[in-house]
Specification:
Structural class: alpha+beta
CATH topology of the largest domain: Jelly Rolls
Number of strands: 20
Shape: globular
Bound molecules: 2-oxoglutaric acid, fe (ii) ion
Largest sheet: 8 strands, mixed
CATH architecture of the largest domain: Sandwich
Strand content: 15-25%
Strand order of the largest sheet: 1-2-16-13-18-11-8-3
Organism: Quercus lobata
GO molecular function: L-ascorbic acid binding; metal ion binding; oxidoreductase activity
Family: Belongs to the iron/ascorbate-dependent oxidoreductase family.
Radius of gyration: 22 Å
CATH class of the largest domain: Mainly Beta
Protein name: Fe2OG dioxygenase domain-containing protein
Oligomer: single chain
Keywords: Iron, Metal-binding, Oxidoreductase, Vitamin C
Length: 429
């Protein structure tokens, strides 16, 4: 449960980062510093319409990310949003627990950390002692040709990969090897680990049995979060009862979400026109009046060794768009042309991320931006992200207007529910 209570851990003021938060060497901020002198696009929405269409379309094609100014949300509403969120995170730990989420059982709303279901949770394991990387290779040969060494091109200490179903529907191998479990100076894999297999499969370990090999203690991020649907569904009762000096968390979030909806409608029109289509096309594909908004408040407490940790792992958002506002501590980075680019703060600007659904609808013309968040030694970083998504039953695939003999569909069409399930379960789309 430690993973869900990073905030409590940070309160103890540890001077060393606990092992489960230490990223593999190739992921650590100290080894992946942001490129100098590159800045993300900033677009004022008060410019003439055709200028905004052009700038937004270019930013979505080249970056999948941009800042907007002159969006019409009052600074005082943004301020109130921040204050109620902050007040929630300042509650005593015990009181926050009353609002806990439970992602494993599908209850995503509330306080916690992990949004993705941890596949490993439903696995049982045999404890083994790693002897060497060679043993690992030997195991993979023993336990089946179906096992794909997805990380074969990486040095073993850097190994971290996922599970994928094989063509015959079975699960392939996952390696998740945390460097903290190994001999520091050795390129060999040493230490105790857990050889994991699905309970059913464990019984029939044999030549073709798929296996999971993972070191005990999955990697964690240095963050806590609060998540809730904010429009149009009613909020969960438990969540809506939380009140602060500045109003209720759900009330202010709802007020802010209405503003975000207005901006979303504007952006979707600009994005549609940028694709050479009628302004209403994207919104209509995303469910029109059924469009859903969800609020995630991210909280990254001060971290004893920020150079070794991440607040959010590199990912793209599964939403159509995400509109985010940070507090005054920087930390967001976006991936552009093979480099991380730090996003500088700009007062009252909103950060717009293109999410996976817009990339799919535009058949790859607009990019879903890869991004991550760093943490800070002294300061608490917070961000308020609104995910804008279609209803679960909406079928999302490349727009027929954009597909022809020269431009074949690059993505399969599926319901948003199916997309979510695959993304949460870390399965290929
Ligand atoms: O905190 C940030 O700036 C990024 C958060 C994020 O990417 C997310 O919640 O999906
Ligand atoms: Fe994100």
């Amino acid at each position: 449960m430690i993973a869900e209570r990073v905030q409590a851990l940070a309160l103890g003021g540890p001077n060393k980062l606990p092992a489960q938060f230490i990223r593999p060497v190739h992921e650590r901020p100290e080894n992946t510093v942001a490129v100098d002198g590159v800045t993300v696009p900033v677009i004022s929405l008060s410019q003439p319409h055709d200028v905004v269409v052009k700038e937004v379309a270019e930013a979505c094609q080249e970056w999948g990310f941009f800042l907007i100014t002159d969006h019409g949300i009052s600074p005082s509403l943004i301020q109130r949003l921040k204050e109620v969120g902050q007040e929630f995170f300042e509650l005593p730990q015990g009181e926050k627990e009353a609002y806990s989420n439970d992602a494993a059982s599908g209850k995503f709303e509330g306080y916690g950390t992990k949004m993705t279901k941890n596949l490993e949770e439903s696995w049982s394991g045999l404890t083994i002692t790693f002897i060497s990387w060679l043993l690992l290779l030997r195991l993979t040969t023993m336990y089946g040709p179906k096992i794909h060494l997805l990380t074969a091109d990486l040095p073993p200490l850097f190994c971290t990969c996922r599970s994928y179903p094989s063509a015959d529907g079975r699960q392939q191998l996952v390696f998740r090897v945390s460097p903290s479990c190994m001999d520091k100076d050795s390129s060999e894999l040493r230490g105790r680990g857990t050889l994991m297999a699905n309970t059913g499969w464990l019984k029939r370990l044999g030549n073709s049995a798929p296996l999971i090999l993972l070191v005990k203690g999955d990697l964690e991020t240095w963050s806590s979060a609060f998540f809730m649907a904010s429009f149009p569904e009613p909020l969960l009762d438990g969540l809506s009862c939380f009140r602060t000096r500045r109003g209720s968390l759900s009330g202010v979030t709802e007020e802010y979400s209405k503003e975000i909806l207005r901006i979303t409608e504007n952006l979707l029109q600009l994005l549609s026109e940028g694709l050479g289509l009628e302004g209403k096309v994207l919104k209509s594909c995303l469910g029109d009046e059924e469009l859903k908004l969800e609020m995630k408040i991210n909280m990254y407490p001060p971290c004893p060794q920020p150079e070794l940790a991440l607040g959010v792992e590199p990912h793209t958002d599964m939403s159509a768009l995400t509109i985010l506002v940070p507090n005054d501590v920087p930390g967001l980075q976006v991936w552009k042309d093979g480099n991380w680019v730090a996003v500088n703060l700009l007062e009252n600007a909103l950060f717009v991320h293109v999410g996976d659904q817009i990339e799919v609808l535009s058949n790859g013309k607009y990019k879903s931006v890869l991004h991550r968040s760093l943490v800070n030694k002294e300061c608490t970083r917070m961000s308020w992200a609104v995910f804008i998504a279609p209803p679960h039953e909406a079928n999302i695939g490349p727009l027929s207007e954009l597909v022809n003999d020269q431009n074949q569909a690059k993505y399969s069409t599926k319901t948003y529910a199916e997309y979510r399930h695959r993304k949460f379960s870390k399965l290929p789309q």
